């Protein structure tokens, strides 16, 4: 059985010599498998597939992930959505006492931030 012709997902040219990188359901020349944002080579590194485009974890965090309303850092895990914003679960806390707010906990809003009923 003949080898399947592999076409690079970036340049759309045939990959010669068996030096194809298989990723995201396709193939790439080794030099073309890079982060679409910063162009860092991704062979052997973790990356994130966003709508068929590879991003290094750093660019994904800084350019794609939503930012937490409290700390303004990227949210790369499960987020709490409240007050028309996204928060890290550990950042969604009472503005006065600093205790974490539970998802089913009632709270007041003061200056756009949660405040527990105790405070």
From TrEMBL:
GO molecular function annotations of the record: metal ion binding
Ranges of residues in domain LIM zinc-binding: 6-66, 67-119
InterPro entries the UniProt entry points to: PDZ-LIM_domain, Znf_LIM
PROSITE patterns linked: LIM_DOMAIN_1, LIM_DOMAIN_2
Coiled coil (UniProt feature): none
Keyword S-adenosyl-L-methionine belongs to the record: no
Record's keyword annotation contains Repeat: yes
Keyword field: LIM domain, Metal-binding, Repeat, Zinc
Database matches in Pfam families: LIM (PF00412)
Protein name: LIM zinc-binding domain-containing protein
Origin organism lineage: Eukaryota, Metazoa, Ecdysozoa, Arthropoda, Hexapoda
């Amino acid at each position: 059985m003949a080898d399947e012709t592999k076409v690079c997902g970036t340049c759309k040219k045939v990959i010669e010599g068996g030096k194809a990188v298989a990723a995201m359901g396709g193939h790439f020349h080794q030099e073309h498998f890079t982060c679409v944002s910063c162009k860092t080579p991704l062979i052997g590194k973790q990356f994130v597939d966003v709508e068929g485009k590879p991003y290094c974890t750093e660019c994904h965090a800084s350019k794609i992930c939503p930012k937490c309303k409290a700390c303004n850092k990227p949210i790369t895990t499960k987020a709490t959505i409240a007050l028309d914003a996204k928060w890290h679960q550990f950042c969604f806390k009472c503005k006065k006492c600093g205790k974490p707010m539970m998802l089913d906990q009632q709270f007041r809003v003061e200056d756009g931030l949660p405040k527990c009923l105790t405070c």
